[in-house]
Design a protein that fits this description.
Strand content: under 5%
Helix content: over 70%
Distance between the termini: 129 Å
Oligomer: single chain
Amino acid sequence: MKKNICKWFKMKAGFKIIFYTFFFASIFVIEIYSQNFQVDNQLRLAKTFETRGNYEQAENIYTELHNNNPKHFQYYQSLYNVLITQKKYQQALELTENQIKISKNIVSLYGDLGSVYFILGKEKEALKYWEEALEIESDNPFAYRTIANYLIENRLTEEAIDVLIRGNQVSKDDNTIFSYDIGNLYSLTMKFEEATKEYCRILIQKPTQINIVNNRIAQYINSNQASEPTFKVIEETYKETENIVFLQLLSDLYLRTDNGEKAFPVIIEIENKTSNNGSAIFAFARKVSLQSNFETAAKAYKYILENYENSAIFSEAEIGYTRSLEENLNRKNSDKFSWKPLVIQKNENISEFTDLIKTYRNIAEKYPENNIGWEAEFRTGIILFENLKDYNKADSIFKKIIDDGKSIQFLDEANFYLAKISLKKGNLDLAENYLAKVSKSGRAKTELRNKGNFLYAKTIMWKGEFSNSIEFFNKVIENPKDDYVNDALQYILILNTFKNDSTNLFSFVNADYLVEKNNFNAAEVEFKKLAENKDLFLLKDFAALNYINLLIALNNYEEAVIFLEEVSNCDEDNIYKDRFLYLLGSNYYYGLKNENKALKPLTRIFENFPNSIYYNKARKIISEINEGVNRNL
């Protein structure tokens, strides 16, 4: 019995010990949690003050937190930052020096100390502490990255480059670990040769990163005095390494600088070292075609035809070569008159276009049952329509494409051109039918459908169905990115404003259709009548613009000047005043070759219409006049 009583007392004492231990431990945990919760609230409050610009209040809280726990790095960093923000540099200096005594061998602390000394104008001391930081972890490349950041922040770019180079040197796994940063810093300081060398170092070790390197160099390749040293370094690196990746880099950068001529021999060398079936040259030809460098594209396609007769891409090279010759010939004709708002194509270079038709027909006969042959047929139709104005032969070509039905990719465009031919011949109903097919086609490209919808609305207008045409013009403007939105808005304005003045509206619409039918002289007469009618508010301005465009298109420069001088100098409000001034200046400059007289109207655009879309165009002509471009032509 006595033993049991003793045992009971011992157990009771044990329970008490456990209970009190648990009780006091719980109190301790709650107290710690409460303290941490209070500290977190203080920290959040300080951050709020700092965000709102109440730096002194933030400083007071950070100081208290740091004093209570000086080893807590976040408290130090927050206090340091708020002191720097307030330009309390001496306090920041003392704080950092004390922190270094508490938390030794932390690289960023020496970085902070160096920054404060640098801000205080003590560059030697700053550099000394940054160097000491590197000695702490001399084998760690990321220590160099950290100090380089401090140098960059203080605009010591050259010193930052040196530190990053040292970081590369100590890196055991990758001695180009910071080369992208080094290359970027070199390019920012206009040291393009050094930047390119650094990027080439990357490619020597990591050729798969060519796209990244390509994009990095592309950021500065078009800068002043950048291209020559850049290409020189890449060419020299290729000679040293014979690594094809540098040929690929060269060709890509030549294309980025619109220098297809220099890229072409590089591509040939790549071709010889790789597939040797013409595919690299073919891809290059397509790229320069997209850049509208049809002359170089033609050379590339021709090279394939002369050297890769058995290649699978031979037929595509045939059509590509002929198409490039066609585009290049069209470019030569259009470049002469690109300044004109309306260009009237004349039957120039007839023999050359006739030769192209023969070539296309040979291709069509050679490949009668595939898209190469049908494209040749289609291109023949375009030349007959656009360049030779032989609408009957063009009509038969496009109908043949549609009737056969095998070449789906050209059906919609064939319908569009048949509509254009019908309009030339005065058959509005037939044109409407063809354009309706284009509009309803689910396979028509967006650009073609937009063009077709706009011409459809005009066709309805030319038929005199003004209400219906307004409806279709409104559909055009539903897409704000459509190239025809502005023109559609103009037609809507004309039709809505003058629908009750049927006589003058019909005259305007008829003149507009005469332009479509290439009856330019008759259209000029109609527009002139409307333009000279002072009672026609707004309509006379639209008519005047069309009249001037026709005068310039027909090379009647003197007559255009007389009319433009009058309309641009009258006191009446005119929605086209800036446009008339530009046309007057460009007509003097390009048409009459009179630079002195061109300057006056172009300068007026600067003075009176600073927000005009013709502002930059006027500036371009004035720059050319000042540089004597026209005199050297």
